[in-house]
Amino acid sequence: MITYSKKFVNPIAILLLILMTVAAFLSMKGDSLTMDEQAHIPAGYGYMHERDYRLNPEHPPLLKDLSAIPLLFMNLKFDKNFSAWKNDVNGQWDMGTNFIFHSGNNPDKIIFWARIPMFLILIILGFYIFKWAKELFGPKAALLSLFLFSFSPAFIAHGHYVTTDVGAAAAFFIASYYFVKYLQYPTKKNLIIAGIVFGIAQLIKFSLFLLVPTFGLFLIIWIIIAKQRFWRYLWKFILILIIGYIVVYPVYQYNVLNYPPQKQVSDATSILASYSVRPLANLVIWMADKPILRAYSQYALGLLLVFQRASGGNTTFFMGEINNQAWITYFPTVYAIKEPLALHILTIIAILFLVWSSSGKASNFGRSLKNNFTEWMMLLFIIIYWFFSIRSNLNIGIRHILPTFPFVYILVSGQIKRIFNYIKNKKTPGLCVVVFGFLIAWYAASSLSCFPYYLTYFNELVGGAKNGYIYVVDSNLDWGQDLKRLNNWLEENNISKIKVDYFGGGDTNYYLGNKYEPWHGDWNPEKAKGSWLAISATLLQGGRGLAAKGFTSTTGYYRWLYNYKPITIIGNSIFVYYIK
């Protein structure tokens, strides 16, 4: 695309990853505890320190285990007599608050060090994006792919939280890389690596069980186009799955070593009491106290929980409405407004060029499929994952489609590389350089414009981060990350008391001290007069949205605040009013 020396490719790639890590680190320093971290951090410590898996069974252990490793060197207090641990069924939220804020530990040190291992996942994903793009399209396209990743507001935002989303994207991508590599080069080494990485993916997020049918589909396609023997590939595919689930076993086994069998049985019985497919639920419960099977019972419990939750849904706000059922337009809309507009333009250009360059070549589709198998599989990955995401009943954040983003970066970069190859002998290559240079610069500038509030990024289609709350909230904008920043603002403005309705994992008493007074949306507004009032965007919009058809829970209780203009908005997520 632009003349350069190949010796600078790797240093530029390293620099991009450093810049991304620095941006995520600086953003992290100002963030208070987010919602899901309240559950994941104590769960991980319970797994690693106590070898007990009673908390947060709806997510696999690996990322939580990693987050807990630095905490093992801190001599922390972990109250096993606290009721949320001793008596409750999955008392993750109360145990999180107790462990982090109320046990005499240093909350800021716990949160900081638990997040540090998450940066490793971010860097590994960047490395594999660069590696795969370079193998497919060469170093220039690889740098562009890595650039799109390194300046992605979504990855910078979620890459430093103790959650499963970036880990899921990394595992989905890397497992796909090694499986496709095995199909094309079916050696024993590639088979074993594909199996191991598949197993690691199952230890990161249960939605990655989707890899099983997806890989099966790719296997069939490859057998057809490469004219391979079906049974030969089928039993090796089964062997990959077996290797993967062998990898799963020791990790789960370690994490349930001190989980009392009777407690595991009673917890599983309670959690699966309403599960509709009783034979599966009963099997998981039966396995729970069998020494050899307990590890797989805990894995299966989490898998069933995910299926149950995906069908159950979450109450959320979207485009002025409140509902506990999914909107089919949710993910397309969120993707359109939360990814940089420059990326969308690059994507459209790439698609148009692909369509134009492929016109009149339909008869060669079979040859194209074989010669460009990896690219077609990437496209199919995106379609399959989007299909299941749109059909899911969980509409709580763009983070749930992060696994598709790396494939988008590579496919777009590959087409841009082909565009430059096509026009290099034309009369106007300079114009293309200017156009694409502008789009790339715009992409970076748009991302940096939101620093350090990357979680709240929205693109120019909706007027940027300041308007994001009008469309969506929850982990798209407000996950509780700005409570620390609220306290800084209160101190800067000498405000001694404020009523707070907070959504997130932070402890308001810890962050705000005696400045905090509780407030709830259904309280009489008259009680707020003469006071400062801070409300998280998720709760504010949840109390102002219109009930969707069929939604019967109470809403509308914050519409009275339309009469007031916020004095400030902390980090784009906490609205501060003075009620006269």
Give your account of this protein's structure:
The chain has 580 residues and is mainly α. The chain has 5 domains: 1-16 and 131-158 and 314-448, no CATH class; 31-105, no CATH class; 164-259; 261-312; 472-579. The chain has 24 helices and 8 strands. The strands form 2 sheets. It has a 5-stranded mixed beta sheet. Helix 23 links the parallel strand 3 and strand 4. It is globular, with a radius of gyration of 25 Å. The mean pLDDT is 94.
Low-pLDDT parts are none
Question: Quick one: how many beta strands?
Answer: 8
β-strand percent reads 5-15%
Count of helix runs: 24
Q: Tell me the overall shape.
A: globular
Mind telling me the C-alpha Rg? 25 Å
| Helical fraction | 55-70%
- Strands of the largest sheet, in order across it? 4-3-5-8-7
Overall number of domains: 5
Amino-to-carboxy terminus distance: 60 Å
What is the typical, i.e. mean, pLDDT?
Answer: 94
Structural class by sheet pairing and helices: mainly alpha
Largest sheet: 5 strands, mixed
Structure summarized in a few sentences:
The chain is mostly helical and 580 residues long. The chain has 24 helices and eight strands. The strands form two sheets. Strands 4-3-5-8-7 form a five-stranded mixed beta sheet.
Give the SSE map.
Blueprint: H1 9-30, H2 37-50, H3 62-68, H4 83-86, H5 92-101, H6 107-137, H7 139-150, H8 153-158, H9 165-184, H10 188-202, H11 211-226, H12 230-255, H13 261-271, H14 278-287, H15 294-312, E1 316-318, E2 321-323, H16 330-338, H17 341-358, H18 365-371, H19 373-391, H20 405-423, H21 429-448, H22 483-492, E3 498-501, H23 508-512, E4 516-518, E5 531-536, H24 537-542, E6 546-547, E7 568-570, E8 574-579
Parallel strand pairs: 2-6, 3-4, 3-5
Antiparallel strand pairs: 1-2, 5-8, 7-8
Helix pairs in contact: 1-6, 1-7, 2-3, 2-5, 3-6, 6-7, 6-9, 6-20, 7-20, 9-10, 9-11, 10-12, 11-12, 12-15, 13-14, 13-15, 14-15, 17-20, 17-21, 19-20
